[in-house]
Automatic annotation (TrEMBL):
It comes from Methylophilus medardicus. The active site is at H96, E168. Keywords: Cytoplasm, Gluconeogenesis, Glycolysis, Isomerase. Substrate binds at N11, R12, K13, G174, S213, G234, G235. It catalyses: D-glyceraldehyde 3-phosphate = dihydroxyacetone phosphate. Involved in the gluconeogenesis. Catalyzes stereospecifically the conversion of dihydroxyacetone phosphate (DHAP) to D-glyceraldehyde-3-phosphate (G3P). GO terms for biological process: gluconeogenesis; glyceraldehyde-3-phosphate biosynthetic process; glycerol catabolic process; glycolytic process. HAMAP family: TIM_B (MF_00147_B). It comes from the Bacteria. It is found in: Cytoplasm. Its EC number is 5.3.1.1. This is Triosephosphate isomerase. GO terms for cellular component: cytosol.
Length: 260
């Protein structure tokens, strides 16, 4: 049994306001103390200062939802890795399908951004996953390898293992239709196995998340799978009680692994 502690990340997308954020983060602080699992919150960029003020010196990390590959320059509307670091971020989401679909990220640029995040001292969370059409055509394995290989080619397996890979089937994101635990395990096992062919040490070390309609009702089954090291939570991160319940489940399973 793996000793990797569970990681639960709230991707709050383009939601929230100052009072709602404060209630969410204060509830998380108060109700997840003394946990073995790891937790992080990724709010919209304008609220990173608020996250820093509320969460600094606590057991809750925070991060950005995206970043430029550039440290500075004439890139209106972009946010650099150094800016995220200055606001105390530990994590940054790279290549989320909602950005890939709008043409902002590609398989190749994700590798460049992944490297830039590591160089800035951030932990990148690389999102990969197939569309409904690709899923129905049985192309999931091909898609995740196509998305992962350019990153590995750019940075290597040892650098990859310092980050996080989140498998997020596009057809499950925001749909309320999560992948079955068996499907999530099969794909994450395949991803780990693909990395293991290149570097067994990196495959053992890397944290793999499942994302796509994980909620309090299915979190226990999903997080119990041996290769599911945590969750990237979208919709269920908008309601503090739901997200906290997932955190509690992750903590219980992390404690069981540690005891084992």
């Amino acid at each position: 049994m793996s000793n990797r502690p569970k990681l639960v990340v709230a991707n709050r997308k383009m939601h929230g306001n100052l009072p709602d954020n404060q209630q969410f983060m204060q509830s998380l602080l108060q109700q997840t103390r003394h946990h073995r699992a790891r937790y992080a919150v990724c709010p919209p960029h304008p609220y990173l200062y608020q996250a820093q003020q509320l969460l600094q010196n606590s057991h809750i990390a925070w991060g950005g939802q995206n970043m430029s590959q550039h440290e500075r320059g004439a890139f209106t509307g972009s946010v650099s890795p150094l800016m995220l670091k200055e606001f105390g971020c530990s994590y940054v989401i790279i290549g989320h399908s909602e950005r890939r679909q709008r043409g902002f990220d590609s398989d190749e640029t994700c590798g460049i951004r992944f490297e830039a995040a590591l160089q800035a001292g951030l932990t990148p969370i690389l999102c990969i996953g197939e569309t409904l059409e690709e899923y129905e055509q049985g192309e999931t394995d091909l898609v995740v390898v196509r998305q992962l290989n350019p990153v590995i080619a750019h940075i290597g397996t040892q650098a990859l293992s310092k980050g996080v890979v989140a498998y997020e089937p596009v057809w499950a994101i925001g749909s309320g239709k999560a992948a079955t635990p068996q499907h999530a395990q099969a794909i994450l096992s395949f991803i780990r196995g693909h990395i293991e062919l290149l570097d067994a040490e990196a495959a053992k070390a890397i944290t793999l998340l499942y994302g796509g309609s994980m909620n309090p009702s299915n979190a226990s089954q999903l997080l119990s799978m041996p290769d599911v090291d945590g969750g990237l939570i979208g919709g269920a991160s908008l309601i503090a009680d739901d997200f906290i319940r997932i955190c509690h489940i992750a903590n219980e399973l992390s404690s069981l692994k540690t005891a084992a």
